[in-house]
Amino acid sequence: MACLFIDSTYDITLGILDDELGWIKFQRFFNQKASAIIQKETYQLLQEAKLSMKDMQQVITIAGPGFYTGLRLSEGFADVMTFMEARHLNFMSYEIPFLTGISEGTWMTKAYRGEYFFHHWNNSLRENKLVAAKELESYLAGVDKSSFYIHSQSAIDELSKSFLQQWKTTSELLEKEPKKIFTNILKSSQKLESYYFRAPEDEFKVSL
Prior knowledge:
This protein has 208 residues and is an alpha/beta fold. The chain has helices spanning 34-48, 68-83, 96-99, 136-141, 158-162, 170-176, 178-188, 200-203, and strands at residues 3-7, 12-17, 23-29, 58-64, 87-92, 105-110, 115-121, 126-132, 148-150, 168-169.
């Protein structure tokens, strides 16, 4: 049951999973536009794995949090694959630690308009919060940082780094723990609404 994975929330990550939910191929692309590489690099990965699009019975994407343009590219690609009878599932990047068995922690990413997105979780709580840059230092002062995650190094900036001593990345968990993560996703048959940092009407305002 070969499966294609696409993450276009910040940097681009492409992967192919085998029947045992291990990576046949896994590759990250930094500082490149998704629109310029997703089709080409997916084709290249499939060629290297000696597979074709028709072999991909499922496509799994990350539904956010992220920006409209990047997320729409992976969503659009997945929509095309559904016409080829592939099943499309997705999940949020902040779910990755919980899916690997980490029972509590905080996940953060830079959002937009000088804001930062936080997801806090434990056995009884799931909470999302947007924090303005001017409030970031005081907010982080009250956050337990012993289990603190970002998705990738591009999803953190110099301001937030200055208030943090250390963090882990969910993109590394994704590479190291695919079986745990994707077993849970496939069991749930999860298909979420995309989480954009900007609503489309804000993203594409006409300039006057």
